[in-house]
Please model this.
Amino acid sequence: MLVALEATGGFESVVAASLGTAGLPVIIVNPVQVRAFAQALGKRAKTDRIDAAVIAHFAEATNPAVRALPDDATRLLGELLARRRQIVQMIVAERQRLRAMTAPRLKQSVARLLKALQKELGALDKEIDDSVRKSPVWREKEDLLKSVPGVGPTIARTLLAELPELGTLDRREAASLAGLAPFTRQSGRWRGKSFIGGGRSNVRAMLYMGAMSAVRFNPPLRLFYQRLLAAGKPKNLALIAVARKLLTILNAIVREQKPWLTS
Model:
């Protein structure tokens, strides 16, 4: 028996946790993939009953691997990090509004809100730090991840919360879960551009940020990036390749329990 749930922006987490606690095997499936599967079957109508049947058929056809669900502490860390991202987005938005304003009264309003948001961000950062540092397992894993130049606390903690399988995967599995595995379009002699997608978008975004930092501060990855550019690879695609290589390095470091060694 297998229970398949469609990802719905986080609302599926409570149901998945309850089913997991009851000992039932649970998987979370990508709604985009499920919809494409339904269209391939010619099912254009969309109701709860039809969706349930399509999801069941999709799970049966693809036979996805069942992975352990995150525990309560990991789920809480993920929620704290998600809220932190929301606060940061609000701060960026308010700063952009501030630049466009001329009325002193409105500028004061934005300034008050920014002050409150910065205070909330500080409180969240402290709670996240306390959650990670009080756990010997998380603390050790975070220190291993942060030993790699280009990886800071936010990236490390996002990986702790949203890619807890890190260290137990091979490089292809890790790239697939992070949405960094390249997909190739080819028909006969025609070969389209490769692209990435799916997977865990927050993990992918953090690794991309880590790649941008690594090409500045991590000599081996900077050299890798420069070789790709010299070979004619566009900057964005080269950064994606660096992000994928960074993930491979982090996965190996956690698996081997050995920090990054500078040459």
The chain has a mean pLDDT of 83.
